[in-house]
């Protein structure tokens, strides 16, 4: 439960290979504006982008308060909202290909009004109890937009954009009952201490992805056999660096493990867009690309968890005398630094999401320098990640130093996330000539 509470503060995760796809790079921020006679169109466009930031913050708060999602489910909700907002904005502004839609708004419509109406409609549909809060937020946004035809057209189109995503995600498997049938035996996952909770969010491994065509499209090969040297190395590293007591970790390594438990990545995306002067279309694209990549990474990781069902380090180390590997030694009292989440080891969800998000970001930004200032809800500290590779390294190390994932589950997770995002970049969120 403690781990779940910490996770519930999470606002999405990032990590991935630093190789940009320049053909998909964002144009200069001022290029999205349509300047009027006073030459101030670019400034108006940047101000309009603040509407996207405000509504993604609103979505964050409403999802947390109303859905009380499990760790990974948060990314699914964020993807729903951000794709609706993205379609609403680019349906007015153009610039980028809509997400699974061909809807177009009148060119006179307000893209800021469309963004607000899309987020409002999407959140109100899924969280009707939050209607008063959402209605007040929409009223506040529209009060900043001049009354008239542009506002009315924007609101109408934003509602259409949200309705399309709602229909698109109908019966997508969210929350469906999915069981984990494997019997406990050496190498196979079973509920872990201290709560011994059942497999959390197993439905994610069967959910219809947002970008990919199936949950298992990028399912990796199997983890190392129990008798292999690599498996023994993984356990040895965990025994040395992942334990709650007697660990060889440095204070910095311990802080890294705790830092990555809960990150405000939605805030980091908004901060990046603001500091770099993104217009409304670029900002909506940043959120939609980031959140859909993470959501599909969760689905991919959970597909592997269901398929391979490998036991967690706490079980593997305590029961090492049953694995048939002469190079491993049991420690009946070993405890990890962090509380073990209630699902299998392979793949690491954090690492897979990190790889997918970083690959998506380096692709749409056209540079390996992601420039993200990310605050941790668990440590209260902010780290500045200049490159994708640095984040990638830390997110993998953190799960080992926290004692909750093997090195293999992390490294394969990052590589898998990169592969799925690399595929998605060739299809989604592309600039329109």
UniProtKB/TrEMBL annotation:
GO MF terms, alphabetically ordered: peroxidase activity
CDD domains the UniProt entry points to: PAP2_haloperoxidase
EC assignment: 1.11.1.-
Signal peptide start and end residues: 1-33
Keywords of this entry: Oxidoreductase, Peroxidase, Signal
InterPro entries attached to this UniProt entry: PAP2/HPO_sf, V-haloperoxidase
Top EC class for this record: oxidoreductase
Name of the molecule in the record: Vanadium-dependent haloperoxidase
């Amino acid at each position: 439960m403690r781990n779940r509470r910490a996770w519930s503060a999470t606002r999405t995760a990032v990590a991935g290979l630093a190789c940009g796809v320049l053909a998909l790079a964002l144009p200069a921020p001022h290029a999205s504006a349509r300047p009027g006679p006073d030459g101030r169109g670019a400034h108006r466009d940047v101000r309009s982008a603040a509407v996207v930031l405000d509504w993604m913050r609103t979505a964050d708060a409403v999802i947390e308060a109303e859905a009380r999602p499990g760790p990974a489910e948060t990314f699914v909700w964020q993807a729903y909202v951000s794709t609706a907002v993205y379609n609403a904005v680019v349906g007015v502004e153009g610039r980028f290909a809509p997400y699974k839609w061909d809807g177009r708004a009148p060119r006179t419509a307000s893209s800021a009004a469309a963004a607000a109406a899309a987020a409002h409609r999407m959140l109100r549909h899924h969280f009707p109890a939050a209607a008063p809060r959402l209605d007040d937020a929409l009223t506040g946004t529209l009060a900043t937009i001049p009354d008239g035809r542009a506002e009315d057209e924007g609101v109408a189109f934003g509602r259409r954009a949200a309705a399309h995503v709602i229909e698109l995600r109908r019966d997508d498997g969210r929350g469906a009952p999915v069981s984990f049938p494997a019997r406990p035996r050496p190498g196979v996952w079973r509920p872990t201490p201290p709560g011994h909770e059942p497999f959390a969010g197993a439905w994610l491994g069967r959910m219809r992805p947002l970008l990919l065509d199936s949950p298992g499209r990028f399912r990796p090969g199997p983890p190392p056999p129990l008798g292999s040297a690599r498996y023994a190395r993984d356990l040895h590293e965990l025994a040395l660096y992942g334990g709650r007591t007697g660990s060889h970790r440095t204070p910095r390594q311990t802080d890294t493990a705790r830092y990555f438990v809960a990150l405000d990545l939605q805030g980091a995306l908004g901060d990046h867009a603001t500091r770099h002067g993104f217009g409304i279309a670029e900002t909506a694209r940043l959120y939609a690309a980031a959140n859909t990549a993470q959501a599909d990474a969760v689905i991919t990781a959970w597909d592997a968890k269901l398929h391979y069902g490998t036991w967690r380090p706490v079980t593997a180390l305590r029961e090492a005398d049953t694995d048939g590997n002469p190079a491993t030694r049991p420690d009946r009292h070993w405890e990890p630094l962090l509380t073990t989440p209630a699902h299998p080891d392979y793949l690491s969800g954090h690492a897979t999401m990190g790889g997918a998000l970083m690959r998506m970001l380096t692709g749409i930004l056209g540079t390996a320098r992601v420039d993200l200032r990310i605050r941790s809800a668990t440590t209260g500290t902010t780290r500045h990640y200049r490159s994708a590779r640095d984040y990638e390294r830390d997110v993998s190390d953190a799960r080992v130093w926290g004692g909750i994932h093997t090195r293999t589950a992390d490294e394969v997770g990052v590589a898998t996330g990169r592969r799925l995002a690399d595929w998605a970049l060739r299809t989604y969120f592309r600039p329109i000539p």
